[in-house]
Amino acid sequence: MLKVYNTRTREKEDFEPLDGNNVRMYVCGPTVYDYPHIGNARSFAVFDTIRRYLEYKGYRVTYITNFTDIDDKMINRANEEGITVTELATRFIAEYLAIAKQLNLKPATVNPRATEHMDDIIEMVDLIIKNGIGYEVDGDVYFSVPDFKAYGSLSRIPMNQLSSVARVEVDEKKRDPRDFALWKAEKPGEPSWESPWGKGRPGWHAECSVMGKHYLGLPFDIHGGGQDLIFPHHENEIAQSSAAYGIEVPVKYWLHNGFLTIDSDKMSKSEGNFSTAREVLDHYDPQAVRLYLVTGQYRQPLDYNDKAVKQAIQSLERIKNAADAMTGRISILEKIGSRETEADKKLADATRKVREAFEREMDDDFNTPGALSEIFTFVREINTLTSDVGGAAVLREAMAVLTELLGILGIAIGDDALAGEGEGQAVETLKGVVDFLLELREEARVSKDFAKADQIRDRLGTLGIEVMDTKDGPTWKMS
Ligand code: AMP
Ligand code: ZN
Predict the structure, then answer these.
(1) pTM of the model
(2) What does each of the 479 residues of the chain score in pLDDT, given as a tens digit?
């Protein structure tokens, strides 16, 4: 039975999805204003591993991870660079997707963006006001924390200690210093959207409440993110979803990854002590980086240093050598013919045991270091036994299991693993490219460049992709 640590209850609980075999999962994604650092990459890799393990266990996972494409950081950076917020977002979404590919993250079911959900956001803010838990002041809308009695259920910060324990933003317009912004009135030079409170933009927390509900429905099963998001982001998300939609527990299991640190300090952009994921992935074998990212249990801190990555490189080398030895032995046996030996029985036994042991570790709140240590025990057995094994089938089975278990950790070895992944990846990439072209077409239409818009549609048509305009926007199919 899979057990997961739930931040909401502070306990390891049996994992029981709300809807049978379907798991609905939302993970806070990057703010696309800069290059993700290797700490962000840890969060991405951790939740990808969790998703892969759930799929391995036979669950059908709907996996949503968003792009925060409008907030103060986005606006400041775009202004510094003299480009629009949309241009900035496009650049760093592309960067995220490139990194996701190198880290071997499975494509999300959907990567929604905050700016695509303004109507939903406005509707939610309106509901919170109507329910008496939000108020407007000069075009800003705030969530009234004292009016929401369950506030603090996730972070467990007592209401009366909130101002002293947590960083609360000072703003004289607020009725109470603990209140937080749901909607911010337009300031000069900032992108804005029409709303019942005048032009403005959403507060940061609004988007995740809205997109979780939009794509997964409330309540859903798993919400993930780094531990820095427990307060205020996730606390506020729960408050918003409950206050707007009247659902007491909008998310069943809250999972939070520990920080990646550099010499024990949290890696963060504001501290300036960070390596971008790009730098790290260009410098080291991406497979080894992915392996390094799961060498720690996901809730514990993980220190980033040269030694740790080099160890991961050596570990990967050991795995690959064992796999190569098996492949080599298989081709010899294909020539000389199979004959069963004592080593065959031992390897078959080790192959069965490693799967059981791997599952036991992963069932314990996704204990990847434990799972890896079982894989290395198996690798040692492979090294000891392979040259004495007489049956190719036993080796093939050992290879298949090694490949499968590593695949759950996001590490692809062997041509088969790569080919299988590659096909699905290629389809996802195609979808992403077509969606992106349709976005460019929409932008062309908005700026009345109809010739460009038609060129995109016609070109896709000649490539066998038919674009259809519906009242909900364009869709496409392979014709
Ligand atoms: P951001 O782009 O800052 O919104 O972060 C994207 C994800 O990375 C969030 O889930 C963060 O909680 C997570 N994150 C940020 N810094 C770190 C870190 N040093 N270690 C692990 N996860 C982090
Ligand atoms: Zn979020």
Answers:
(1) 0.86
(2) 999 999 999 999 999 999 999 999 999 999 999 999 999 999 999 999 999 999 999 999 999 999 999 999 999 999 999 999 999 999 999 999 999 999 999 999 999 999 999 999 999 999 999 999 999 999 999 999 999 999 999 999 988 888 766 666 777 889 999 999 999 999 998 999 999 999 999 999 999 999 999 999 999 999 999 999 999 999 999 999 999 999 999 999 999 999 999 877 777 777 777 799 999 999 999 999 999 999 999 999 999 998 999 999 999 999 999 999 999 999 999 999 988 999 999 999 999 999 999 999 999 999 999 999 999 999 999 999 999 999 999 999 999 999 999 999 999 986 544 333 444 456 667 877 888 899 899 889 989 999 999 999 988 887 888 888 876 678 787 76
- Asked if domains 3-125+207-293 and 306-418 share a fold, the reply is no
Query: Could you tell which of 27, 33, 40 is best to mutate to test the pocket of ligand 1, judged by most ligand atoms within 8 Å of the CB?
Result: 40
- Ligand 1 atom closest to residue 43's alpha carbon, by position in its atom list: 22
Pocket test for ligand 1, best of 27, 28, 32, 43 (most atoms within 8 A of CB): 43
Smallest Cα–Cα separation from 409: which of 437, 440, 369? 369
Q: Name the strand (E) or helix (H) holding 384.
A: helix 368-385
Q: Which CATH superfamily is domain 3-125+207-293 in?
A: HUPs (3.40.50.620)
Q: Are 220 and 226 in contact (CB under 8 A)?
A: no
Please tell me the distance between residue 251's alpha carbon and the centre of ligand 2 in angstroms.
13
Ligand nearest to the CA of residue 37, numbered in listed order: 1
CA distance 418 to 46: 20
Report the CATH fold assignment for 306-418.
Four Helix Bundle (Hemerythrin (Met), subunit A) (1.20.120)
Q: Report residue 36 as tokens.
A: 């993700």
Domain-wise residue ranges, the chain: 3-125+207-293, 306-418, 421-478
Write out residues with Cβ below 6 Å of ligand 1. 28, 30-31, 39-40, 42-43, 225-226, 228-229, 257, 259-260, 266-268
43 alpha carbon, closest ligand: 1
Sign of the torsion formed by the C-alpha atoms of 340, 341, 346 and 350: negative
Task: Provide the residue count of the chain.
Answer: 479
34 beta partners: none
Is the omega angle on the peptide bond into residue 158 within 30 degrees of 0, that is, cis?
A: no
Say how many Å lie between the CA of residue 27 and the centre of ligand 1.
11
